[in-house]
Each structure stands twice: as C-alpha cells, then as structure tokens.
Design brief:
The protein is mostly helical. The chain is built from two helices and no strands.
C-alpha cells in the first residue's frame, strides 16, 4: 500500500516528465509528442 507521500512523489515525477517532454517539443510547435513516447510513458507508469 502506498503512502500519501509516495503517491504525491509519483505524481510530481510524472508531471516533471510531462513538462520536460513538452519543453523539448515546444521549440517546434507544429511537431507533437510522438505516439511512441506517449506509449512508453504509459508502459512505465503501468510498471509501478
């Protein structure tokens, strides 16, 4: 069972990953985050 602190940390890490990916692709606003990256993130989240 996860504690509140662990859950908040998990959410914070996920937000940081999302923000970093957005920052990388912000340079070219016509380019979206590739589906393969989104799929990879989903797989990583499922492993926890």
């Amino acid at each position: 069972m996860k504690t509140r602190r662990e859950e908040r940390r998990k959410v914070a890490i996920e937000q940081q990953i999302d923000e970093n990916l957005k920052r990388v692709y912000e340079q070219d606003t016509t380019q979206k985050v590739p589906d393969r990256f989104l799929e990879l993130l989903d797989k990583l989240r499922e492993q926890e």
